[in-house]
Amino acid sequence: MSTIVLLLITGLGLGALYFLVASGLSLIYGLMGVLNFAHGSFLTIGAFIGWEVARRLSDGSWWALVAAMLTGAVVGALVAAATEFFLIRRLYNRHIEQVLVTVGLALASVALFEGIWGTDPTYVTSPSWLGQTTEILGARIPNNRFMLILVAVLVLVAIVLFLKFTRYGLIVRAGVENRLMVTALGIDVRRAFTLVFAIGGAAAGLGGVLASIYYGYVSAHIGGSLLIFAFIVTVIGGLGSLAGAAIASVLVAVLQQFANFYLGGTGDLAVVLALAAVLLLRPRGLMGAKA
């Protein structure tokens, strides 16, 4: 029983990390139709800059962690907004060019990160409580999993509230439905779309800092490795569905944990097989809109 509890809760923690990355992907594609393969770069630079700030403040303290999270979110948002403004804005409805540009940016950014911070992982120090465990029904759960779950829930609620109850959220949703009509009313939809990119980048940058806590290090490739699972989550949940991304994040992570434990470390294979099954049986994903 304790093993099942451990796998479930640690799966929820891993799913929370996947959601922080996948939420930006799903938001950007669902509202703007952009497949952003450079999304992992937002995560990586947010993690690196966040921990550079934390290291200079008071490494290992809660204040340093909060500063790292805020810095990671701000840096991710700024880089994402700049990417949309200078590169993506001219490529809406040109999907092949979007893929080429964002893939190229992702590859170039990895080389840049390795040139600045090196190819070896940079190990991070977090508050001692996060390295401890809490016993639940006989299972010793790492405390950092609880933090991941809490932050992911807060991000999900914040994005939903933004889209439903703010002026810019209304503009974004209206611009997706009929961009020409909204523009004819004198509203600059481009600003709203840049804001969407920034929100997705902020979630990724925040996820980068938390990923470094989860793994204990940050490296130039951490964003790329998480981006793979984020895309799987986005496809399984349904392209453009934020709720689908949240549900799929949990399902994928829990499946991965159980398969790794009971099936000899075949978690990644189980996730790929689940993706294949969804594509064959329900191509639009669990909560994707019908074509």
UniProtKB/TrEMBL annotation:
Transmembrane segments: 6-27, 34-51, 63-87, 99-117, 146-163, 193-215, 227-255, 261-281
Source domain of life: Bacteria
Pfam families given in the database record: BPD_transp_2
Major subcellular location class: membrane
Keyword Transmembrane helix belongs to the record: yes
Recorded GO MF terms: transmembrane transporter activity
Database matches in PANTHER family: ABC TRANSPORTER ATP-BINDING PROTEIN, BRANCHED-CHAIN AMINO ACID TRANSPORT SYSTEM PERMEASE PROTEIN LIVH
Name listed for the protein in its UniProt record: Branched-chain amino acid ABC transporter permease
Origin species: Cryobacterium flavum
